[in-house]
Request: fold
Amino acid sequence: MIASAPGKIILFGEHSVVYGRHALVSAINLRCRVEAKKSKVFRVVSPLGITGLDFKVHPYVSFAIKRFSELKRIDGAELIIKSEIPIASGLGSSAAVTVATLKALSGEFDFMLTDEEIFELAKKVELDVQGRASGIDPFISTFGGSWIFPERKKVEILFDFFVLKLWERSTKMMVEKVAKLREKHPEILERIFDAIDAIALKAPGCDSEDFEELIHINQSLLRAIGVSSPEIDELISKLEKDGFKVKLTGAGGGGCIFGIYRDRKPGGSFVVKPEMEGVRIEDS
Ligand code: PMV
Reply:
């Protein structure tokens, strides 16, 4: 049984969402596909390697299998993973592989889980691996579409985006960096978070010109809270000189930057579209 689930892009609100503010997040048309086959042993095959149940090399898939077998006992399975979503770049590859694994297992072992159940299990897997998580990624990967969090208000995003991958980085380290700055200057950071909150709420109603202005403002605020870097700032000013408006997406410090795609995109970037469909079974 083959299942697939989409990645995501945080358009506005990363970091401030950790402190109770709003974020605007969209599923994207890059998917992770997982094939599950009945087997006598556990075997996971992905670009990261070929392993058994291995909580270091394949933590999300291994915990997904563990959580699934708490509901339906299985003695073995082969999982073959192919993903279009870059790893460790803030585009939701971990949640997509988790959600697709759960859906493929539920189909292969005739233990159909509802999307709501898949989401709840995927959230547990995220906590198993990361210890702390907002649950946004498993939600988007399961249900698709564009949403304002934490309310889960569905919105429509009519633009396509170009995405430029920089380098891999750790979300945890960037979240800690912001936490330290906030400890030192709480009265200032809280006001920056409020400004980002206003951006996330305003964005869904904007035309492309205003949306790009919000991209520019949000990037300046991300820089202010210390999640950009001289290299990223330099790259962004170069792109701005070429007429692009771009911001980081996700934790920052690397990962990806994006802007609205209008016929032209920076060299090395790729185009993503908002994706309406969440997890699904694929024809084999
Ligand atoms: O880069 P990602 O996809 O790991 O996104 C992190 C988003 C943060 O707001 C920085 C953290 C969070 O848990 O919301």
